[in-house]
Specification:
CATH class of the largest domain: Alpha Beta
Helix content: 40-55%
Mean pLDDT: 89
Distance between the termini: 42 Å
Number of strands: 10
Structural class: alpha/beta
Low-confidence stretches: 1-9, 17-40
Number of helices: 13
């Protein structure tokens, strides 16, 4: 109930702020617009006023996502001949993803690359459905701008929230890291003999319960200490790179279950985007979607690199065969996804899964 009230309060606040922004825009519509959110309404390059935008991401320096964002910003500047200039604030400098999401809705931040706020519509968590993708070769189909997932979120969710969904950027599959060996690791439903921390979302919890893990939802910030002190035996919902960067001192095993693809979203405030020249809109969409398409291979290579780095730290990396991973996926679709229908709707789940299996 407390969570619902908080979400309701946030929604009301954003609606009020959006109304205020709309009112102020209407009052000043006869004057030349400037600032970070809009150019002039002219479709003429010669009279269009360049815009200065702020972009937020949750990614640290040197990560594949942060590097791609910096490249994207420079490509946009060149493609628009300096009409769209973007300043990047990485690693949550402008706030956590919940607050940034709200600010993109009202336009005080123009671009966000990161996690999304399911408080407005649970379907925004669709890219993180367990075993939606069943290997790197399936990512182009699952996350394609022509697929059911993208089109549904773009048309039915984000447009109504005042945002343009530009693409999904893949960063690697989640695995399970533990201090002690997992028993019956490849057998669906068999007791794994360990208690692991999972993110506080049913998509993660139900998947790990289905595999046979006992779960706890301690905060992510407490996970290192929790494993160190024995409060938990390990963690799920973490890709290989973060296990190496944040947990390599407290784990001895990494199980490459490939449960969830870390597919973050790139969003632009719709009013800011609509104010651009049509050719600049098209250039930006193309640049971002090309970066997202490149992320499939970047994520695979990055994951392979960090798994080797885990091995170099004497952490055992346990792989699974294609047949074993397919058994995990089939069991998840049969046992877990029906339980998620109350959150996502059966129609959405069926549409996403049928689209993912198109190839």
């Amino acid at each position: 109930m407390i969570i619902v009230k908080k979400r309701f309060t946030r929604i009301i606040a954003c609606i009020a702020l959006a109304a205020l922004v709309t009112s102020l825009t209407a009052c000043g519509s006869k004057e030349k617009t400037s600032g970070s959110n809009a150019g002039t309404t002219s479709n003429d390059k010669a009279t269009f006023e360049p815009v200065e935008w702020r972009m937020s991401n949750q990614h640290p320096d040197g990560s594949i996502a942060d590097t791609a964002d910096k490249e994207m910003i420079e490509e946009i500047r060149k493609a628009t001949e300096g009409r769209v200039n973007i300043t990047l604030y990485n690693n949550n400098q402008l706030g956590d993803y919940l607050s940034v999401f709200d600010e993109v809705m009202v336009g005080s931040i123009q671009i966000h690359h990161g996690s999304t706020n399911e408080g407005y519509d649970s379907r925004v968590l669709g890219p993180f459905l367990p075993y939606l993708a069943t290997g790197y070769d399936t990512l182009p189909t699952v996350y394609s701008p022509d697929g059911y997932l993208f089109k549904t979120l773009h048309d039915d969710v984000y447009t109504k929230l005042g945002m343009e969904l530009m693409g999904f950027f893949c960063e690697g599959f989640d695995g399970v890291g533990t201090q002690k060996p997992v028993t019956n690791a490849a057998e669906v439903g068999a007791d794994k003999g360990v208690l692991i921390r999972v993110p506080a979302m049913e998509t993660f919890n139900q998947c790990n319960l289905m595999l046979g893990f006992r779960t706890t939802s301690i905060p992510y910030s407490d996970t290192y200490t929790g494993i160190q002190t024995g409060l938990a035996d390990g963690a799920s919902g973490v890709p290989a790179n973060l296990f190496y960067l944040n947990f390599r001192d407290v784990i001895k095993y990494f199980y490459d279950y490939q449960q969830v693809q870390e597919a973050t979203s790139i969003l632009i405030n719709k009013a800011a985007f609509d104010s651009l020249l049509p050719e600049d809109q098209e250039a930006i969409r193309t640049i971002i979607q090309n970066k997202c398409a490149e992320s499939y291979k970047l994520a695979q290579d990055d994951e392979a690199k960090y798994k080797q780095m885990l091995r170099d730290e004497n952490i055992e990396v346990v792989e699974f065969t294609d047949e074993e991973r397919q058994a995990f996926a089939d069991a998840c679709h049969e046992q877990v996804w029906p339980k998620l229908a109350q959150t996502f709707t059966q129609e959405f789940l069926d549409g996403v899964l049928n689209s993912a299996k198109a190839n």
